[in-house]
Amino acid sequence: MVKIFSIIILSLTLFQETAAGSQEVVVVQSLRVKPYDDALRGFKSVYAGKIKKLILPETEGADAVRTVREAKPGMILAIGAEALAKVRRIKDIPIVYLMVLNPHAPLQGEENITGVSMSIPPEKQLAALQKVLPNVRRVGLLYDPAKTGFLVKKAQLAARAAGIELVAKEVHRPKDVPELANSMKEHIQAFWMFPDTTVVTPETVNFLLLFSMENRIPMFAFSNKYVEAGALMSLDIDAFNLGKQAGEAAGKILSGADVREILRFDAKNAVLTINVKTAKKMGITVSDEVMTKARKVR
């Protein structure tokens, strides 16, 4: 009788340890930088379970995939594009990604992966643009169809619904950016900088900022660092809130939800940043209501 009781106790203990282990989340982080750390803080504010953290540059050549597998986690949180690229080879553990600019393009058919992208829905971006520049009706945009074509299709639909004409031109080489931008300057009232690595390079950014200022065509950027460099405005992600969204998805997955039922989603919250100096130079007056809520660069 004692022997049977001991076996039952041992079985229950093993079950509890296995269940606890399956609730562990392994965090694979591309770099130790503030936005990624903020995203992880947001994740932890929602998910209170056990976490094992792996920073890729600090693994000293260790096989990250093997390390993750040995931990036998219930879920993997990939923070950053490099982290996602590493762990996507794992097919039998749920993966939630964070802080990945255009995750939809490289992911095809992976049924164990979901997450929140850094993309802000174009309808939200255009709504912000119209609040800052209510009289704008024609907006220019340059893009490489191989990199952001899917985003531009969404933007075109959103622009049509908002009563805005989107003047979009394809770019296949960074060196073509100046010519294409100059070809549209007489036809646009604002320029929308998309997160496209063919269009946005250190050289082209300098040109586009100068193009914007010389032609008094306000630039709407995707990151506040370009506002600090001279763009009029940006609508940027909030890394902490992005982490909270991922934490909510993790809670569902670790409670037994099928990853395939949790669709990949865009950022909910965004931060509007306005360059006050640029607005003054261009003779743009932004309403007090908008300025009160915006982050300001002076």
From TrEMBL:
CDD domains: PBP1_ABC_unchar_transporter. It comes from the Bacteria. InterPro entries: ABC_transpt-TYRBP-like. Pfam families: ABC_sub_bind (PF04392). This is ABC transporter substrate-binding protein. It comes from Geotalea uraniireducens (strain Rf4) (Geobacter uraniireducens).
